[in-house]
């Protein structure tokens, strides 16, 4: 991938300061914090703005994954590459998720962020955990694999289950590749459909500042800055852990592949701020996939690795 080159190209085409998405998102987050702090009731009423933006993004995720994966795989001359990419991706996810867990455990045991809270367990509401446990999927290997297979194709898209959509997309892409020339009209149609779908993604991203503003205003309005300050040690521990993982572990990976972690961060800064403002990593999925393609990653690799990574973590 050519992250550094893309970062330089973006700098050359730099928009006016006020027109850059990351600046707009940052301003929106700041305004949301101020509104939620000084006018809590008004801040809470902004919740629909954040929820609406998240729903708009989730609406487009399944089509983006389907088109990216299907056209990428169908256009590959060697289908064995699909298996190799999937195998390498799973090895990467397992290895680096384990490293992330180790770093998290070490930092948590050193800092002990929950020490001193002295919360009486009897005062806690256990219903939330009970509801979550009741709705959680079977986390055994068999249950996980069975959950990947959708009951119906329509159901996978209707529910927005990323892994199920990805599973069907891989199978459909392989089928298109196997039928050869007979599948060319379908492939051409899907490739043509990709253009307006990604244009829709760019249009939706223009609403990101509104979504970030609504989500942040609601959070501060409902829970207050005081609640955030009380959790400062926990939040600080999280950011220290993230900093170590990103700049040490991922930094080494980036350096091994010929670019710096700072170049990558600059390249995806809009997506990082979007996740910060909306508290939803899914909000950045479509635009992140588009940027990785522009950076030089193959469409089939982007379509397989990024959605799987979201679901895996």
Structure description:
The chain is an all-alpha fold and about 325 residues long. The chain has one domain: Proton glutamate symport protein. It contains 16 helices and no strands. It is globular, with a radius of gyration of 21 Å. It starts with a helix and ends with a helix. About 25% of the residues are buried.
Topology:
Blueprint: H1 3-12, H2 21-38, H3 40-44, H4 47-74, H5 80-111, H6 127-135, H7 141-148, H8 153-159, H9 162-178, H10 184-205, H11 208-230, H12 232-256, H13 261-267, H14 269-278, H15 285-294, H16 299-312
Helix pairs in contact: 1-13, 2-11, 2-14, 4-9, 4-10, 4-11, 4-16, 5-12, 5-16, 9-16, 11-14, 15-16
Short key terms for the protein model shown above:
single chain, 313 residues, mainly alpha, Proton glutamate symport protein, 16 helices, 78% helix, globular
């Amino acid at each position: 991938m050519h992250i550094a080159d893309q970062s330089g190209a973006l700098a050359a085409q730099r928009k006016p300061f006020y027109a850059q998405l990351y600046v707009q998102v940052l301003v929106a987050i700041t305004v949301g914090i101020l509104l939620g702090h000084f006018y809590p009731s008004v801040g809470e009423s902004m919740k629909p703005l954040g929820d609406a933006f998240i729903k708009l993004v989730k609406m487009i995720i399944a089509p983006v994954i389907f088109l990216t994966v299907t056209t990428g795989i169908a256009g590959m001359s060697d289908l064995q590459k699909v298996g190799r990419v999937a195998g390498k991706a799973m090895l990467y996810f397992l290895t680096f998720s384990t490293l992330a867990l180790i770093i998290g455990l070490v930092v948590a045991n050193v800092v002990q962020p929950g020490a001193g809270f002295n919360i009486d367990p009897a005062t806690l509401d256990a219903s939330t955990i009970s509801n979550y446990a009741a709705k959680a999927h079977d986390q055994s290997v068999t249950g996980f694999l069975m959950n990947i297979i959708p009951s119906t194709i329509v159901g996978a898209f209707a529910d927005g289950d990323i892994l199920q959509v990805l599973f069907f997309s891989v199978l459909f892409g392989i089928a298109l590749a196997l039928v050869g020339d007979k599948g060319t009209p379908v492939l051409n149609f899907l490739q043509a459909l990709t253009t307006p779908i990604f244009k829709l993604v760019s249009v939706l991203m223009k609403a990101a500042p509104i979504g970030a503003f609504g989500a942040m205003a609601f959070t501060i309005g409902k829970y207050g800055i005081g609640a955030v300050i009380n959790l400062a040690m926990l939040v600080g521990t999280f950011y220290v852990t993230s900093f170590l993982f990103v700049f040490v572990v991922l930094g080494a990976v980036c350096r091994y592949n010929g670019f710096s972690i700072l170049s990558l961060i600059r390249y995806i800064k809009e997506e990082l701020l979007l996740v910060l403002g909306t508290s939803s990593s899914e909000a950045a999925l479509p635009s992140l996939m588009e940027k990785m393609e522009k950076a030089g990653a193959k469409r089939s690799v982007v379509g397989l690795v990024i959605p799987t990574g979201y679901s895996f973590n």
